[in-house]
Amino acid sequence: MLWCGLVTGADAQSSTPQNSWKPEHPPLLQQRLDAAVQSILVQFAPQKLEPDQLAATLIDLRDPQRPAQAGYRGGVQIYPASVIKLFYLVAAHRWLEDKKIADTPELHRAMRDMIVDSLNEATGYIVDVLTGTTSGPELPQKEIEEWWDKRNAVNRYFTALGYTNINVNKKPWCEGPYGRETQAIQLFQPTRNWLTTDATAQLMTEIVTGRAVTAARCRQMMELLQRDPFSPSADTNSQARAFTGMGIPAGTKLWSKAGWTSETRHDCAYLELPDGHHLVLVIFTVDHANEVEIIPTLARTLIASLPRN
Cα separation of 244 and 256, whole Å? Predict the structure, then answer.
């Protein structure tokens, strides 16, 4: 597979600095994405889908050494819902590689549950392990400042790699937050997690090509991200079938991390198409969480526009 064994030597020892991330931006690929987005805006006009409620980044990986990128509002900060868990997964493997945290069965159980089942409780545990912080009652001013500094450990990691326009320091919640989590929201900016489709697509590309942390760790991450989009599922929010997987041709292989709330519906997907195309496709939508067809329709339209080999 594309993600196996592509990096050796120095590249396998540490995460690739973003200043080495220099994808090409071919006009034809951008034209295809722009046309697909415009088609979707027209198709979902009755549902009042607006241009600023959609963002997408497409990366063509047929030549993994020369990724080609196109984007629509790809640099805009959007609340990422559970897509943020992809960043916590990479950070956890970086910490493990550096022996900053213990490699325990409980940690691996949490990483699996965070990515495969998208459990918020598992993610909260991972955030605690990565940052040395815990949720709980409010803290005195000095202590909450120290807590906040620790909580930004993952932000510092991705900033050091050159990532911009993102915020990766919040736990995802079902009913919360409470206590010091709310206290931090009231005291410090930014108040929410933020991602862009560009940053998310870059991280997925680095995982797919074996360049996030090490090639061996990328293989472990890909095992958690692998989906079966063609098996029946009663789950209306199945990461395999209810997002990009709804819009792909038979025989396509899929790896993905989806996210959804009452306001957002997102997916970050890597596709190996039967015709040989290898694509990273990240689609974020806001204020249309119940419109389950937007993401797969955009994926289907883009795939149909690609040249046949």
Answer: 8
Q: Which of 61, 77, 73 is closest to 37 using CA atoms?
A: 73
Judgement on whether residues 49 and 90 belong to the same structural domain of the protein: no
- Least Cα distance to 268 among 80, 4, 72, 134 occurs for 80
Summarised one tens digit per residue, pLDDT across range 24-49 is 999 999 999 999 999 999 999 999 99
Let me know: does 124 contact 114? Beta carbons within 8 Å: no
107 and 251 inside one domain: no
Average pLDDT over residues 129-157: 98
Query: Of residues 16 and 11, which shows the higher confidence score?
Result: 16
Q: What is the CATH number of the domain that holds 285?
A: 3.40.710
What type of residue sits at position 51?
P
* Pair (8, 90) in one structural domain: no
Longest alpha-carbon distance in the chain: 63
Residues 190 and 281 in one domain: no
Provide the residue range defining the domain that includes 97.
Answer: 79-195
Reply yes or no on whether the pLDDT at 17 is more than 80: no
For residues 200 and 83, is the Cβ–Cβ distance under 8 A?
yes
Global pTM reads: 0.93
pLDDT confidence of residue 19: 53
